[in-house]
Amino acid sequence: MGKSICVNSIIYSLGLEGMLSASYDAPFPSAMTDTIRVNGKDLPVLASDVFLEIKNAKDEKATIKRSVIGGANKNLGL
Fold first, then answer.
1. Spans of all domains in the chain
2. Residues whose CB is less than 8 angstroms from the CB of residue 58 and which lie 6 or more positions away in sequence, other chains included
3. Which of 11, 41, 57, 78 is deepest in the core (most CB within 10 A)?
């Protein structure tokens, strides 16, 4: 479970969601974009983000953060 969400998160964090559909909508289920069920009750999702950490051969790391909803900016950010 979750393999598609993982791959879609990588694609979205790199700004490549346009290759999944022409709409450029975030490719995530409602639990990341609309509502999530907790203890049998549907609660609104106020914010969700995707983080992707990348590392090169020199062990230098960079973390990419991209808001799915609730963020001030949905563009890529380091």
1. 3-69
2. none
3. 11
